[in-house]
């Protein structure tokens, strides 16, 4: 018996199936995808940290068809290992380090509060708060002008559907179109910022240097799109899933409402309890042993983050949402070389959204049963309808 990533019941609630998988073996073979699955916290952590396991981008074929998608991925840090990864991450981190996270904190708090106040007595958390907040944050970070911001969410949503275990030809065509359009837009924006720099990340990515080294035009575009896709999708889905988890644990919601100092730990628990990314695949560059299982060179192994984050060997009462859980060594932001560069920004956004709901939608309840997207890798709701009425 093996896990079926397309089973509607697994997609609705993957945790019972992930627990059974983890209980049978820390690492097991998944014949349908030809991939080893690391389900325990220790095994998933080892997959993320072992330098013999990496991300080695191979262009999709036919190249003429897939070039818009291939171009973005071969030039981004997440699909590369050292020395290419080291160089790209250092340049992007150098631009990121110019105070962008702290610069955005007041604006994120204010925008989250404004969005929650403007929502009706009954509203969809995703469309009314999480999505516009995420778009605003990423747009402000990159320096995307306000009239163009409505284009970011559709582009991101189309591109990330390519990462699912199964996808349709229509989804592939939409992803390719989004890659072309988004890359073209960012090339134009980068050219404008080169001529007229602003205090935004695109301007700093254009200007950043490490000695004589700098990002190429393709690397700049790929880095910006990675930040949007990773930051936007994770933030929206973490807030949506996290609020649902809180509402299913009303005692924890009351605890949080009474003690706002718990907002940071509650935000971390949202990422642990129902992580927005459930699978991160790596390839063995050389033979390696994970949890006693030999992985041959060229074989793939996936860290199952949702399974790792519910491992009872690491987390007491792992299936219970604990707003004060500390320590909380979850793997929701990854680990090792590919730890999420945007984690500080994601934390600010998640805390701001949660605080705004506590302040301006007290007594919120689920107005309807949340509707899940039919995806496993990116765990998300299509709709989370909330009512302000106590």
Description:
- The protein is of the alpha+beta class.
- The protein has a single domain, classed as Cytochrome P450 (Cytochrome p450, Orthogonal Bundle), CATH 1.10.630.10.
- It is built from 15 helices and twelve strands.
- The strands form four sheets. The chain has a five-stranded mixed sheet with strand order 1-2-8-5-3, sandwiched between helices.
- A hairpin with a 4-residue loop joins β1 (27-30) and β2.
- α11 (217-247) runs parallel beside α15.
- The longest helix has 31 residues, at 217-247.
- The protein is globular and about 55 Å long.
- The model has no long low-confidence stretch (mean pLDDT 92).
Short description:
It is built from 15 helices and twelve strands. The protein has 390 residues and is an alpha+beta fold. It starts with 7 loop residues before the first helix and ends with a strand.
